């Protein structure tokens, strides 16, 4: 069975999903169920998982017994706030150490600030955190994150929430080819074909939120994304045919056909 392994744990699904931007918790649950995802991200600074006892708790519908929870630092713009946020998440989740680190550069583009990201990663890894890290598509930065001990590298396909799809497949291919830890696309996926392309490139998985939550029918889009990730992975494993420019090649054998003179070809 083709499985995804992150931090020593085995998953059958290669689609990871977020929990933000849905109409309500009911729609969140339905979409996550339809996606088949086993890893679910939670923005600790935006969604209640026990910080506020007077607000609805996401854990009432997304059970840690069923899903691997992946708290993230969405909304953090400095290493200090990211570190503080993940320490809080670990306390709320009884010592859970698998986290997603992201440190953003500005409020307009939400592009990652890699200087602050590396700074935070070095601190958190020393404290025993297992980090999946949102990064730019710079292969040198990706390798550095792997070297300091991150358990997964998560380059953006395009800007968070843009739905622009994969805009630089060449850099992603370099990252995939050189990485010894899982590489998962994070940010920029807009529709099912984007997810399939990411998987066909050889990515180990895809994480998305807005592409599902902002769809006209989020539950149906979640189902589509599940199928796209599975199809893209199968296509990658199968190995696509070689592209041939101006090279006619019949899809059927030519031997034994009837020639124009009425004779069969050899």
Summarize the structure.
With 266 residues, the protein is α/β, with parallel strands linked by helices.
Produce the secondary structure layout.
Blueprint: E1 4-6, E2 9-11, E3 15-17, H1 25-35, E4 39-43, E5 68-72, H2 79-92, E6 98-101, H3 114-126, E7 130-135, H4 139-147, E8 152-155, H5 169-178, E9 184-186, H6 192-201, E10 205-208, H7 210-213, H8 218-238
Parallel strand pairs: 3-4, 3-10, 4-5, 6-7, 7-8, 9-10
Antiparallel strand pairs: 1-2
Helix pairs in contact: 1-8, 2-3, 4-5, 6-8
Architecture overview:
The structure is a single chain. By secondary structure, the chain is of the alpha/beta class. The chain has helices at 25-35, 79-92, 114-126, 139-147, 169-178, 192-201, 210-213, 218-238, and strands spanning 4-6, 9-11, 15-17, 39-43, 68-72, 98-101, 130-135, 152-155, 184-186, 205-208. The protein has a 5-stranded parallel sheet with strand order 5-4-3-10-9. Strands 6-7-8 form a 3-stranded parallel sheet, with helices on one face. It has a two-stranded antiparallel sheet with strand order 1-2. α1 links the parallel β3 and β4. α1 packs parallel to α8 (218-238) and α4 packs parallel to α5 (169-178). The protein is globular, with a radius of gyration of 21 Å.
């Amino acid at each position: 069975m083709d499985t995804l392994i992150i931090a020593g744990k085995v998953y059958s699904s290669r689609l990871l999903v977020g929990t933000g931007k849905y109409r309500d918790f009911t729609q969140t649950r339905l979409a996550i169920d339809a996606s088949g995802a086993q890893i679910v991200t939670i923005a600790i600074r935006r969604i209640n998982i026990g910080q506020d006892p007077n607000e609805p708790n996401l854990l009432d519908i997304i059970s840690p017994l069923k899903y691997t929870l992946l708290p993230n630092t969405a909304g953090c713009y400095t290493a200090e706030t990211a570190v503080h946020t993940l320490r809080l998440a670990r306390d709320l989740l009884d010592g859970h150490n698998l986290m997603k680190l992201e440190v953003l550069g500005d409020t307009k583009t939400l592009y990652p600030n890699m200087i602050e990201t590396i700074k935070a990663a070095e601190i958190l890894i020393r404290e025993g955190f297992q980090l999946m890290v949102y990064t730019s598509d710079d292969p040198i930065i990706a390798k550095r994150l792997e070297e300091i001990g991150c358990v997964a590298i998560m380059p953006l396909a395009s800007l968070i929430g843009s739905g622009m799809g994969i805009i630089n497949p060449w850099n992603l291919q370099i990252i995939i080819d050189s990485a010894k830890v899982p590489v998962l696309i994070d940010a920029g996926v807009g529709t099912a074909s984007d997810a399939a392309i990411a998987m066909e490139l050889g990515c180990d998985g895809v994480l998305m939120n807005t592409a599902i939550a902002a769809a006209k029918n989020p539950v149906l889009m979640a189902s589509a994304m599940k199928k796209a990730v599975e199809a893209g992975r199968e296509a990658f494993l199968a190995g696509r045919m070689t592209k041939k420019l101006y090279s006619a090649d019949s899809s059927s054998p030519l031997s034994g056909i009837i020639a124009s003179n009425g004779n069969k070809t050899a």
